[in-house]
Amino acid sequence: MKSISYDTSEPIIALASAWGESAVAVLRASGHGCIPLLADCFSRSEALLKAPSHTMVHGVLIDPATGDAVDEVVCAVYRDGRGYTGEEAVEIFSHGSMPGIQLILETLRARGFRDARPGEFTLRAFLNGKIDLTRAEAVGEIISSRSRAAHAMALHRLEGSIFRRIDSFKEGLKKLLAVVEIQLDYPEDEVSAEDLIAEDDILQLKGELETLAATFSTGRLYQEGARVALSGRTNAGKSSLFNLFVREDRSIVSDIHGTTRDFVHEQLSIRGIPVTLYDTAGLRHGETGDTVEREGIRRSGLVTREADLVLYLVDGSTGVRTGELEGLDPGKTLLLWNKADIANGPAPEGFLSVSAVTGEGFALLEEEICRRLSGVKIGADEAVIDSLRQRDLLVRSAESLAQVLEGLDAGMPLDAVTVDLRDAMDALGEITGEVTSAEVLEDMFSRFCVGK
Ligand SMILES: Nc1nc2c(ncn2[C@@H]2O[C@H](COP(=O)(O)OP(=O)(O)OP(=O)(O)O)[C@@H](O)[C@H]2O)c(=O)[nH]1
Ligand SMILES: [Mg+2]
N or C terminus of the chain: which is more exposed, having fewer CB within 10 Å? Predict the structure, then answer.
C-alpha cells in the first residue's frame, strides 16, 4: 500500500474542543516521545515523566525559552499503545481562553510538535490497528449526527455493528475461496465451478449485502433529515397543525381564508428524524386572491415540489372539493382529514383522521410520517450504514456475486468464477480497511475536524 503523504509518526498537537471561549479547553498531543517533549515545558517535569498510563498530572505549562507561565493545566497521560491513537498521548485540559490556547499551541510547536491534520488522531488509531475503517467512519458520524436516532445508530457502528456484519460476510466467502483455491492447485481434477460453489449460498449472501446497502437511505434520512410540507386549501388547518408540530404559536391561525402568505418553516424531530416542516399558503380553486397571495401560492408550490413528503389537509367539516386531489403525487402525499372533532363524517378511504385543535390522531400521524419517510421500521439493534463509501463497496461486492452466478449459469471455468469471488471479497476488505489505498484514507479523514 502506498503510504500516507505526510509523516504519521511525528508528534502532533491540536485543539480537540471547539474554538471559542469556554470554561475548559482540551488539547490533544500524540506520537512517540510526546510525553518527554511536554515535560520540557511543564512545571512538574518529573511527575509527568513518571506518571503511569491513565493518570492525571496537575501543573503549569511553561515556555522554556522565556521561563514564563503559559497556563495552569491538567494532563491526562496515556502510555504507548493505550491512548485513542494507539500511541503515547497526552490530553491537556487548559482554560478555555482563545489567546491562552494560541499561546499553548505556539509553545508546543516550538518544542517540535506539528499541527495535526484533520482526522489525524483517528487515522492514527486506524493505522495502529485500534479500530477498523467502519468504526473510524462512525467516529465522524457521531460528531456530525443531527438527531438522537442518528447518534444512536453511529454509536452502534462504533461498537462494531457494521464490522461484525462485514466480518460474517467475509467468513462465508473465505470458506468458499479456500475450497475453490485448493481445487485450482489441482487442475488435472476436472471439477466444475458448479460442483464447488452452491448457487443458493451466493444468492443468500448477495441478498444480505443488498439489504445492508439499502439501509444507507435510512442512515442518510436520520442524519440529514427530510423536508415535509403542509399543503391544502385555505382554512384547512395547515397553520394550526404546523403549530401543533412545533409546539408553539408560530404560524398565524385565523378563520379568514388566505391567512398564510409567505411560507414558514421550522426544524423539529419526528420520532428521531430531523425534519424541516413547512407551512404554506392555502390553495384556492377558481378564485384568484390578490397579487401577494398569488405570489405566496407560487412559492408554496415550489416548496411542495421540493418536499420529500407532503401532508395534504382537507377540512373534514366541508369535505373534499371536486378535483382538489387531482395532480397530487401519491408517492409522496399523505392525505389528512383535519378537523375530525367537527367533521361531518368519518375520514374517507385513504385519509388519516386528525384534529389540529384537539390533537386527535396526532401520534398516529407522526408514526405514519416516520414510516413513509424511512420506508422501514428500524430496530434498535439493527445495523444501518451512513457512509456512501460503504454503500458503494457493498453494491460492488453484490455485483461481483451476481457475476459469479452468471458465470455458474454459463458453465464458466473455475478460475474465471474465482476472479469474481475474489473481487467480492476485496470490496468487503475495503469496507473494513484491510485493502484500502492511502488516497482513499487521506480523502476520508480530511473530512474530519482537526483534533478528532
Ligand atoms: N375545530 C377545529 N378547528 C380547526 C382545526 N384546525 C384548524 N381549525 C380552525 O380552522 C381555521 C383555519 O385554520 P388555519 O390553521 O389558519 O388554516 P390554514 O390552512 O393555515 O389556512 P390558510 O393559511 O388561510 O391557508 C381556524 O379558525 C382554526 O382554528 C381543527 O382540527 N378543528
Ligand atoms: Mg395558514
Answer: N
Q: Cell for 385?
A: 450504514
Which ligand 1 atom sits closest to the C-alpha of 253? 16
Q: Do β-strands 273-279 and 264-270 pair in parallel, antiparallel, or remain unpaired?
A: antiparallel
Q: Interior CA angle at 14 toward 127 and 84, to 5°?
A: 40
d(CA 361, ligand 2 centre) in Å: 20
Helix locations, 353-387, DSSP H: 362-374
Is 341 annotated as contributing to ligand binding?
A: yes
Q: Is 28 annotated as a binding residue?
A: yes
Q: Which residue has the cell 391544502?
A: 232
pLDDT in tens, 16-42: 999 989 999 999 999 999 999 999 999
Residues 55 and 174 grouped into a single domain: no
Residue 92 has pLDDT above 90, yes or no: yes
Asked whether residue 237 is marked as a ligand-binding residue, the answer is yes
Out of 72, 98, 131, pick the residue that ends a domain: 131
Q: Which residues contact 106 (CB under 8 A, 6 or more apart)?
A: none
Q: How far apart are the first and last CA of the chain?
A: 24
The model's pLDDT over 328-356, given as tens digits with 9 standing for 90+, comes to: 998 899 999 999 999 989 999 999 999 99
Q: Which ligand is nearest to the CA of 258?
A: 1
Residues contacting residue 149 through CB under 8 Å, at least 6 positions apart: 222, 271, 272, 273, 378
What's the one-letter identity of residue 195?
D
Q: Does the pLDDT of residue 377 top 60, yes or no?
A: no
**Do 239 and 364 reside in the same domain of the chain?**
yes
Three-state secondary-structure class, residue 353: strand
Residue 161 is assigned to a structural domain of this protein: yes
- pLDDT of 73: 98
Ligand 1 atom index nearest CA of 356? 31
444 within a domain of the structure (yes/no): no
Count the residues in the chain. Answer: 452
Question: Is the residue at 447 inside a domain?
Answer: no
Q: Which domain holds residue 76?
A: 12-131
Tally of structural domains, the chain: 3
349 and 281, same structural domain?
yes
Calpha distance 67→41 (Å, rounded): 9
From 239, 261, 278, 292, mutation site for ligand 1 pocket: most ligand atoms within 8 A of C-beta: 239
89 and 191 inside one domain: no
The Cα–Cα gap between 237 and 240 comes to 5
What is the rounded distance in angstroms from the CA atom of residue 413 to the CA atom of residue 406? 12
Q: Would 413 be classed as within a structural domain?
A: yes
